[in-house]
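Entry 14: structure prediction run for non-specific serine/threonine protein kinase. Input pasted below.
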Amino acid sequence: MGNCGTKEESAVASAHAQVQQLQLFQPTVKNICLDKKNDLSFSDLRDVSATGWTIENARNIAIYTNIIAFTLFELETITKSFRSDYILGEGGFGTVYKGYIDENVRVGLKSLPVAVKVLNRDGHQGHNEWLTEVKFLGQLRHPNLVKLIGYCCEDDHRLLVYEFMFRGSLENHLFRKTVTPLLWATRMLIALGAAKGLAFLHNAERPVIYRDFKTSNILLDSDFTAKLSDFGLAKAGPQGDETHVSTRVMGTYGYAAPEYVMTGHLTARSDVYSFGVVLLELLTGRKAVDKTRPCREQSLVDWARPKLNDKRKLLHIIDPRLEDQYSVRAAHKACNLAYYCLSQNPKARPLMSDVVETLEPLQSGGCSSNNPVSRSSYQIFVGNRLPEYQIQHRMVGNLAPKCSPNHAAASICKVR
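Run finished. Output tokens:
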């Protein structure tokens, strides 16, 4: 992007003067009109792409508390003009760079490593996703949501600044061969953290449907605390007598709920299905879609779900790298949870608050007989009645899958 020179230096000087009069993490820069009449509510965000917003009137968004409006010059400074060796990753939105903010960037800033996401300037959809993410993360705060520290909106530049997540994405830890396999306890910790993030969104005063839950959007801090990132596809949930939100089908093939793919009807239970897919990835160590596997095993849900509720088969699908790390009872609890989350009938899926309740006993050796999986313990286990799924009383409808959940209208999913 290059150095912005004197013009940007003036902008920084102006920002320095303003920050002394405002609280830390309050909007301070040019090009953002904070007039309340221009504020957007959650209802305005139900389909940003349909509101007719343009690059110009994006400057009229009202930003809530706790985030900083950075200048482009400041973000160029902390990324060394977006140097290639500062790149953390790339995706559909754009490129993510590492950076470091402190007093040298702006008076009053706390020293902090950050990740700077730069929007690809080609395409209107990227701008809408940027706007949606600023609006949601500008209002939502939770230990299992990545923290949005700031943003930049200058001319046609759109950037987001997040807390830096030291361990990167869950996707990298699960599927990169060079990375040490995650332990069972760590996987259950990650599953619980991600579930808490979704439960918070679904139970907000105005429910939020995340819509793009997948391993690449789950980031991990130094303690393997899971945090949801990338809210570009998030939607405000239905209100009042509404049963769903109708929207264009977007998401990632292999994770999207079948009823959403077929109808465009979005509910919180769509997120529950996606959670089930990720939980299955954690349990098996396999990708949701893997074209390198035999035909019948390429769709993880198609291959694994029939085995999840079969006491003689469920342990055979657990990631073999997890040998001796979990009890039979814990494995069954986790597999049974995944089975119900992946139900073809949305109403038969649990609430995310119930998912959290089910996962909590699996932490730190919970739900364990202190005996790791062995052939003898497995034989003893399958000879007895399976323990009831603790939230089964909430389930309704026919739980048996009638068709493949990943075959319907797959081609219209947006691959991100």
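Notes: The domain at 5-163 is CATH 3.30.200.20 (Phosphorylase Kinase; domain 1). Will compare against the previous run tomorrow.
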